[in-house]
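re: ur question from the group chat, yeah i did fold both. here u go
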Amino acid sequence: MRDFSEFSIDRYKAVIFDLDGTLIDSMGMWSDIDVEYLGRFGIEVPENLQTIINGMQFSEIAVYFREVFGITDSVEKIGNDWIEMARDKYEHTIPLKPGAYQFLSFLKNKNIPCGIASSNHLELIEAILAHHDISDCFRAIVTCDDACAGKPDPAVYRLASGRLGVPAEDCLVFEDIPVGILAGKGAGMDVCAIRDPHSAECFDEIERLADFAIDDFFPCIP
């Protein structure tokens, strides 16, 4: 990892954000949903579940739940159930990470195009952006389902940079977990890690993989 004193936003022509755990403080909510959802079937959540499913496409996670936990509902129904469980929180209660709004406003004023590259479902992404009135900060929203590959495959970041019309080497990625950092690096982009409490056990690996690491977005604003 490089020293943050080397960081300069002027080096980049576009910024691409992961969503959950990076731009918004939602990882605890998803852990709670896993407990509630599997509890409907009398299943306890394995301790390593989040580590296993991190970076997967939304539909891939539904397939995983069917195969591993023996849930007989269709992939579509599983996904729709999760969306229903999460929608109200995304529309009303999930906060942005500290400094995120200010940083997005700064990038918008600098006319630096921004995108989102997320494993989440498009409907929930749009809900949280509307809730915080930041939809117009993003020129491209790409999901891993759009890219037909979950992280650490770099496809979602390559697709996002293509939609932004900016070469990968001129893009900066913000991520919170190792598979996301690997996806950004695999696409040929610099990656700044956001230290999220829910990935604390991975901090050493995160700092080894990322170009920079921060606790909130305020240091990125000159």
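okk and heres the other one u asked abt
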Amino acid sequence: MNTRELTCIVCPRGCRINVRLGDSGAPEEITGYSCPRGLEYAKTECTHPTRIVTSTVRTSGGGVVPVKTSAPVPKEDITAVMTAIKSVTAPLPVHIGDVLIKNVCGTGADILATDSRE
């Protein structure tokens, strides 16, 4: 049996979660979580880990605007998402919530502005 020790990143509590994996790599036993969100995090982290991506996008005025994905993206797609973010320039003005890249890299997540720039 293979085991994984995780620190939950869903909330500030940071529960230490232990996952026993079966021969197929699927979680068979999960202990140490304090809430249902921690249990779901452990299952997802062991089968198909995802992350919210945060970065900045250049603006047409020469500055940058902070951005994030609208939903978690698979970890294996993060490099491609960052390449897409690097390739775009946001026209001014930019407002909080503006979609700067729709369905980035086919992940289903959009790149959203998290601040405004004039």
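fwiw on the second one: The longest strand covers residues 2-7. Helices lie at 36-47, 78-87. idk if thats what u expected
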